[in-house]
Amino acid sequence: MVVKQEAKLDPVWDDPDRTLGQLFMMGFDGTTVTPQIRQLIEKHHLGSILLTAKNLKSAEQTTQLVYELQKCAHDAGHPVPLLVAVDQENGGVNSLFDEIYIRQYPSAMGVAATGSTDLAYEVAKATAQEVSACGVNWIMGPCLDVLTNARNQPLGVRTSGDDPQEVSAYGVAFMKGYKEAGLVTLGKHFPSYGNLEFLGSALDVPIITESLEQLSLSALVPFRNAIRQGLDSMMVGGCAMSSAGLNVMHACLSEQVIEGLLRSDLNFDGVVVSECLEMEALSHNIGVGGGTVMAVNAGCDLVLLCRSFPVQQEALTGLKLGIDNSMISLDRAKISLRRILKLKSKCTTWEKALNPPGIDWLSTLQPSHTGLSTKAYNKSITVVRDKGRFLPLTNIIDPEEELLLLTPLVKPLAASAASKALSETANTGSPEPAVWERSASVMSGERVFRELGRSLARQRSGRVLHTSYTANGVRPVHENLINRASAIIVLTADANRNLYQQGFTKHVSMICSMQYSAGGERREKPLIVVSVSSPYDFAMDAGIGTYICTYDFTETALNSLVNVLYGEHSPTGTLPGTISQSQKLHQSRQHWLVENFNEERDANALDALLRTVVESTPLNQHSELSSASSNSFLLHNQEIIEAHFVVRNSSTHVLYGFCSTYFFKTTGTGVIGGLIVDPSRRKLSIGHSLHNRAIRTLLQREGIKRFQLGSRLPSMFLGIPTGHGSERKRLRAWFANMGWNTALSRPVCSMVARNLASWAPPDGMAKSLQSAGAQFDLVYGWEYAGPILDHIKTNNRQGLAEVYNMALADSSACGIIRAKRPEDDTLVGTVVLYNMQSNLAEFVPGIKDIGETTGGISSPVISPSVGEYSTLLQGLILLGIRCLKQQGCNACILDYMDGDGNFDGLSAMGFGVLHNFEEVSCDAATWTMVPPS
Question: Per the count of CB atoms within 10 A, which of 180, 207, 446, 917 is most buried?
Answer without folding.
Answer: 917
